Amino acid sequence: MSERKVLNKYYPPDFDPSKIPKLKLPKDRQYVVRLMAPFNMRCKTCGEYIYKGKKFNARKETVQNEVYLGLPIFRFYIKCTRCLAEITFKTDPENTDYTMEHGATRNFQAEKLLEEEEKRVQKEREDEELNNPMKVLENRTKDSKLEMEVLENLQELKDLNQRQAHVDFEAMLRQHRLSEEERQKQEQEEDERETEALLEEARKRRLLEDSDSEEDAAPAPPKPAPRPNPTAILDEAPKAKRRVESWEQSVGSLGRAPLSGLVVVKKPRADPDGSAGQGQAAPAPGAPHGRKVADPAPLLPAASSLSQLGAYLDSDDSNGSN
């Protein structure tokens, strides 16, 4: 069984490589390659924007009769993503870029235009210096002046950086903080002065109004009666109670008329001769007959009820002793 991966091939003794037929391919044949759009472009047919970096399956061919320093120039064919119109562009080895040929327009690129302008100016200067030695001297003088200005500006920047390196930022912040506090204090004082001025003006206006009201002699409104203080009784000193309070509760006041009905006047007892003895009181119930009862004290018309009651009690005591 032969090997699956053959490293050496067999060549017969009569092998002649010149007799092998060569494949003849056209020089302008095309290959299908995968590439990305090298720049931003816009389709002329539909106006579709194609941004840089969009991928396409393009056809590649070699441009005939165009060579730059022995380097071939290639052309690419792509299709618009919207209308499928054909767009072509080719390489530009001289400027290391691509050039648009057909089907689209390249969008504006400021950087590319700036580079082209710089190259054009440099080329014109070289052409002038080639045939004019005085122009060379003039250009050198301008270059030296420009270089000196650049060095001076650089030195100024260095000095500025050194000065800033010695700046005490803490002191600057502290000074700023103090100034801010002073400003706030000043604003506060101004506010206080304005407030005092407003209060003084209001007080003067009120005094003027009061004086005007007094001149008009308007009757003053009656003052409301003072309300009694509920706790005033606690601040007052306690008053001495009357000693006769219990007597007045049980008996009553001595000068009152209803107490006069409590006294009963005893009637004098009649003698056997039918004459009533004056000044003798009737014997008390239960007392023995034949005994004399002490005459009660005569009742004065102006005597009080308490004196009448005392006389009645004394008469009872005398009867009991007898």
Automatic annotation (TrEMBL):
Subcellular location(s) per record: Nucleus
Chief site of localization: nucleus
Biased composition (Low complexity): 273-288
Extent of Acidic residues compositional bias: 188-199
Pfam families: Saf4_Yju2
Molecular function per GO: metal ion binding
Binding, Zn(2+): C43, C46, C80, C83
Chain positions covered by the region annotation Disordered: 179-302
Ranges annotated as spanning the membrane: none
GO CC term, one of those recorded: U2-type catalytic step 1 spliceosome
Coiled-coil annotated spans: none
Ranges of Pro residues composition bias in the record: 219-229
Quaternary structure annotation from Swiss-Prot or TrEMBL: Component of the spliceosome. Present in the activated B complex, the catalytically activated B* complex which catalyzes the branching, the catalytic step 1 C complex catalyzing the exon ligation, and the postcatalytic P complex containing the ligated exons (mRNA) and the excised lariat intron.
Similarity-based family: Belongs to the CWC16 family. YJU2 subfamily.
Name of the protein described by the UniProt record: Splicing factor YJU2
Lineage of source species: Eukaryota, Metazoa, Chordata, Craniata, Vertebrata
